[in-house]
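Late entry, iron/sulfur cluster complex.
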Amino acid sequence: MSESNNTLLSIRSLTIAYQHGNEWLEAVRDFSLDIGHGETVGLVGESGSGKSTVALAIMRYLGQGGRVVAGEVWLNGRNLLALSPTQMRHIWGRQLSMVPQDPLSSLNPSIRVGEQLAEALRHHMGMGQTTAAQRAVELLEMVRVPDPERVARSYPHQISGGMQQRVMIAMALGTEPQMLVLDEPTTNLDVTTQAAVLDLFRELIQRQNTAVLYVTHNLGVVARICNRVTVLYAGEQVEDAPTADLFRQPLHPYSQGLLDSVPQLGQHKSQASLQGISGHIPALGERPSGCVFAPRCTLAVDECYEKRPSWESLPNGRFVRCHRWAEIASGDISTRHPAQASTPPKPQPQSQPPLLTLDNVQVHFGLGRSLADTLARKPPAKVRAVDGISLTMQQGETIGLVGESGSGKTTLARAIIGLEPRTNGQMTFCQIPLPPTLSERTLETLRHLQYVFQNPEEALNPYLTIGETLRRPFITLLGYNRQQADTAVRHLLQQVKLPPHYADRLPHQLSGGEKQRIAIARAFATNPDLLIADEAVSALDVSVQAAILNLLAELQTERQNALLFISHDLAVVGYLADRIAVMYVGKLMELTETAVLLEPPYHPYTEALLSAVPITNPEVSQEHIRLEGDVPSQTNVPSGCPFHPRCPRYLGDICANQTPPWQTTRQGKQIFCHIPVDELQQIQKPVLREHHASEAHNG
Ligand code: SF4
Ligand code: SF4
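Prediction complete; structure with ligand written out below:
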């Protein structure tokens, strides 16, 4: 990280502290980084690692409770930390700009989006009123905002979170800054929009020679866009390397752990369980004095607890902070163990009656009308959230349900659970008709049909101890007495790998990952035949996500329950599922065995999703297919094939007007498309291809 002529931003030994009571606790220690013109550096680490703190310090946005204790941040030869607020106002905009994690915190709720963009352009770019207003709309179009004129006229609360994020990206790019700080800028975006926005970043970085610090927890995004990566753990840089080198041979045990926590697209639980990282980041003020990672490191030796490792400069521009990096580099030691299958591949006993059948299930509901619509006697708009889904699930099977937001995945899950009554269609569960609402269902059905949501808080009463929460299903659904229930709770905690004394804790005393384990334990308490998990790992750090995925796979093997696993993340779904169902505006587009997911032919929508997933394997190249526009509104589902307005393989009138047929491929995939499967097979290439590593990053 030696400063060169090309260096634009140079951070030197930055130490940042936050106030806790009367104390100042170090959140980031001794952080150094150089970023050159046209260079994109990824800053990665789990929550609590200090990534966003570094980003805020560069911007001089640290609030009252945070302060820079030591160090310098040089931009264009000026130390930003020594500038007055007035001087900083001249730096923000043209020289330095940021896309924050939470767009709402940066948008003024009382000013229209277009006006806010135009104001930034007038102020920083010196544009006149009319030019700025026109440019604002162009910028919205550039970040793929559908109907940019309408969005420009909207107030921030009238547009979705993903749209607000795109507005912030447009605002940051519009001032053509030399240095751009991006703090998780694509977190709220669907994978297809994320892929398009990442393309846009790449294009602009190249065109404007922008320097970028890209803060993210998503290693696939780093692999796609960054030249270098710096890995932060508990406020300390532990490794810094060119992206391809780090992904090919991480030298720090924490970097290895992060990479091994994320399932690769195409990796399945039957091949190997995820390695993950046990434990969690120490809280501020509890950081160990030797190596900060020692309590979680499987390679720790006595020296690691006694002496802080130094920041070593290695050949090829790499840096690492580990006493044992040389042994790791030579391959003598590793945190990586030989692959161990977490679950045996599951035969599908098709002869058995299905556990769950969905037959043409629809969930439609009317929207409230505005006063103007009521006066004009317009009928209320109808939302077709789920529009004719048919599917069967076998005992013990895992089906992954994927699709972008607005595809109807969650509504379908809620209809099966009974939280959203279906409008039409039939469901059977254990060969018995499943009534539409929870209140009509028997205790036996409730017992055998359980669910886990994204937010574990929904399953945990903040005033009940974990023991009380877990005891309830045993007593109410299984008729256990108190003593039997207590024994069962202890066993359950053991199964989700939490110590028995957690029964006495309240939810607020648990971390996010621990709460999700409790939610899973509660769902498994009654030994259900079917568990529905809706984005159950999406909000978790990758190491915790890996532990939860392993846990789900293990419990399922042990208990042979079926799992409907809903996620926007195709790699995670592919890891866990036996079959995958792809949904789009309320309809199924494809149903496939996971084993053949990556083999063509694909439904054109699946093909686009697969090509948009950020992948972490530098040895693999990926087809480049990008979708135009957004998922259409469920109130205005396109005619014919609902995917036709965005389909890269659109055939013409037949797609726009006629419902496609279901076709079956030789591998047994079912595809809802007008293009004959043999023709699809000929025109589609495999979305992922193994190739030489050096091509992967440059390609
Ligand atoms: S210094 Fe020791 S504890 Fe720290 S990462 Fe290296 S081997 Fe692990
Ligand atoms: S039916 Fe037509 S629009 Fe729909 S996926 Fe197939 S080719 Fe595309």
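Residues 191-208 form the longest helix (18 residues). Will revisit in the morning.
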